[in-house]
From TrEMBL:
Record carries keyword Plastid: no
Domain of life of the native organism: Bacteria
GO cellular component, one term: cytosol
Keywords from the UniProt entry: DNA-binding, Transcription, Transcription regulation
InterPro entries (UniProt xref): HTH-type_LysR_regulators (IPR050950), LysR_HTH_N (IPR000847), LysR_subst-bd (IPR005119), WH-like_DNA-bd_sf (IPR036388), WH_DNA-bd_sf (IPR036390)
Name under which the protein is recorded: DNA-binding transcriptional regulator, LysR family
One MF annotation (Gene Ontology) recorded for this entry: DNA-binding transcription factor activity
One Pfam short name: HTH_1
Homology family: Belongs to the LysR transcriptional regulatory family.
Entry keyword annotation includes Transcription: yes
Length: 303
């Protein structure tokens, strides 16, 4: 059923006048008559019994008028909601984020909620690999992970931050040097996060490319526990620079991994299909709040 014909018919009945309906809709009276005849032809029987300048609704016409008001009301509500969504005054966004990344996004979350208070924002915390799987499967619209993402999942990834990886050990572990070559880790015990963490996946990739078989003394799902083990002399913990700034450096030695450096690259990921207005707004805020600062060369922590 043609919505415009229905609107012309309902307006004519509501005003009880072809002339007034034409003025209200800003069309000619002949257009009103033509559209109502078109609607009658589509339905297959008369809706109005015309008597001079007056008309009487048929039984079918009364049904079409009553239900037509419901249809047009629903169309108005639909249009209003579409406009609200496009204006980001309503909607929902689900973002997947590994626990190691969330501490970097506090200001982003605050800015998003301030700027778009009527968007329902839900964070889903899981490992980087699980976030990647959920985004690829369409269970999450957008997520965060550490590059490189799983190539088999066919995800779109856009880097939003890059930080150096540092080694953390007991006092004297680096002979007062603030850098350590990757090759020097060949025979060094390491305490790492578990293998389902994207950071560990990246570290294993770097070791493999350098021809190093890492000597893993222990693994944990808690980054601060790996630091505790490093402080106790069990091995070196390997962490991105933002975590180094959060540490109490007392009783620890710190050195940035070099030659080559290992970048910890945080990225947005999505499945390459549609991105909602809310998701695009999230990406824009990440760039506004973090982009310029994150693209700077990382500063060295006080040793």
């Amino acid at each position: 059923m043609d919505i415009r014909s229905l609107r012309y018919f309902v307006e004519t009945v509501r005003l009880n006048s072809f002339t007034q309906a034409a003025a209200s809709l800003q069309v000619t009276q002949s257009t009103i008559s033509k559209m109502i005849r078109q609607l009658e032809d589509e339905i297959g029987e008369p809706l109005l019994m015309r008597e001079s300048r007056q008309f009487v609704l048929t039984d079918t016409g009364r049904v079409v008028y009553e239900r037509g008001q419901d249809v047009l009301g629903a169309m108005r509500r639909l249009s209003a909601q579409v406009l609200e969504t496009q204006a980001l005054s309503r909607g929902a966004l689900h973002v997947g984020m590994p626990p190691m990344i969330n501490l970097l996004f506090t200001q982003v979350l605050k800015t998003f909620r301030t700027r778009y208070p009527h968007i329902s924002l839900t964070l889903h915390e899981d490992t980087g690999q699980e976030i990647e799987r959920q985004v690829a499967a369409g269970e999450l619209e957008i997520g965060m992970s550490i590059l490189p993402v799983d190539p088999e999942l066919d995800l779109v990834s856009v880097q939003v931050a890059s930080h150096a990886v540092w080694a953390v050990g007991e006092p004297g572990a680096f002979r007062n040097k603030n850098t350590i070559r990757l090759e020097a880790l060949r025979q060094t015990p390491l305490v790492l996060l578990k293998d389902d963490f994207a950071l560990t996946r990246r570290l294993r990739r770097e070791f493999r490319q350098a021809g190093i078989e890492p000597q893993i003394a222990a693994q944990s799902s808690q980054w601060d526990w790996t630091v505790s083990m490093a402080r106790a002399g069990m091995g070196l913990a390997l962490l991105p620079e933002p975590f180094i700034h959060r540490l109490n450096h007392e009783g620890l030695a710190l050195a940035r991994i070099s030659d080559p450096e290992i970048p910890w690259q945080v990225a947005h990921i999505w499945n390459g299909r549609y991105l909602s207005h809310a998701a695009k707004a999230w990406i824009d805020i990440c760039q506004d709040v973090l982009g310029g600062r994150w693209l700077e060369e990382p500063s060295q922590p006080d040793l």
